[in-house]
Hints:
- About 65% of the residues lie in helices and about 0% in strands.
- It is mainly alpha-helical.
- The N terminus is likely disordered.
Amino acid sequence: MGIRFNKEGKEGRFGGVLNSIAVPQEPSFINTFSKGSWKVLLFFSFFQLFFFHNAANLFAVAIVLLNWLVLTKFLLRPINFSYYPLSTFLILGFCLTQFYFPLVFTLIEGKPVVYNLIRPFDVFVHLILVFFVSIIAHAAYTMYLGKPGLRKQSILRHFGLFSPRTEKQIWLIGFIGLSAVMFTRLFAAASANVILNKFVMGFMPFMYAPFLIPLSPLFGVKYSKSKTLTIQLIVYTIAVFVLGIIGNSRGALVSGLTALGFSYFLGMLMGAVHFKIITFRNVMIGAFAIWFITGPLSDLSIAMLVVRGTRTEISSTELLNQTLETYKDKETLKKYKAETSKSETSDIWDEGYLDNIFLARFCNLKFNDNSIDGALRISDENRAVFQNIQIDRLLSILPTPLLRVFNINVNKEWVIASSLGDQLFSFTDGDENSIGGFRTGSFEGTGFAAFGWWYLLIFGVGMVPVFFLFDKLFIRIKIPAASPEQSPHFESRISLCALLVINTIFQFLTMEGTLEIYSYLLRGWIQTVLLYLLVCRLSRIFSTL
């Protein structure tokens, strides 16, 4: 499946359609999404201003509307999702998590969009500037680096990054990832081999591969739907949830489901997945999802937080039992929520924004606020130290022998033993004891604290190759005509590798430091591709046994 184009399309030097592009054969989901999103946004914006009509909230709502206007007018277009789907999806994810979702979900909870923000004006100024720089960087990328998905001579194609995988291989990829999770949860703490532990952890995202089987046309195959597959996926989901509880990892509970949701959303934007929004089935699924996320899943997540302090002291079985018992004890959950809410108002580093624990994972502007507030109060002396810390974190990804050759002294253990949020807090309100708390920072604030307004240039330059590399995980291929009466057409396909890290792409710009862009370029992207090729080779070997 994919967006089909008629014979009027011309094949240019990149081996794809470059000139006359036919209109898709079916109504564009992009137009439907754009119109619908504006109706929802205007509705919530009106009531944001009606109930919370202060200057800060007015400014924030205006910035959100400006962001969505520019996005829908210049970026949310079919041609971008035809040739630059993953890079465009990255920017869309930034706009949703940093502008759209905060405005909508804060009002649902009866709060203004600037709720609990110390520096609301600065937060939204930085956000809109980052957005404009992203747009400029994306324009530069499309102008000077062409259309990477159309290049026939690609080393990634040669090594099989886009080769179809059988359903059996997909399951084997998932079990390899699941085995990595089991090793990490059960044996990594007892293993003294740090390199081995990190290597095994790299396979963990692959456990979500089976969740993507229903969207197999996106990566070039079509598996038959059956009740057996549905039952298998239900059992597999339960296994993933149990492992998440044993490992006390809230992210493991939802990452597979969000990967499926984001992939389906991207497929509709590309026109590769059929869509019918208002149907009885979709309404029921949506209602169940809302109930499950805001109810049972939220309570289970809080139960995991309650027992988190004992996870290193008891066995996995005991931890599972304690978590389930705590989940059943609704009074304990209520008490924990109340105590957490109360402590947020007195803690110097306050991360309170949304009450829903899962929505807060996708749109918490308090992270931005804390970091920007710290950046505006850090001394010049500490600013220079903080800058060196971020540079050291970037250098720490290089192999130790290479650092020794160039006589670069970096304490790898120390720079990764805390977050940039910890470091920034220690330079402003905290002390050395603040290190190791892993407070969540935001690259707008930590970048501004270290590099001043130059962080926007550092960010923009780094994003150009990031856009290019993500779109290298996508191709458009020419499908021959099935009969003389038909014409050849082109289909868009995304590597399964990209769909497995779709959460990372969607939330790429929620990183902690500006230089993390360059860390991803030097190691993150390369590591993901190499591990994917390795796990595909292993699945092929195992499938023949």
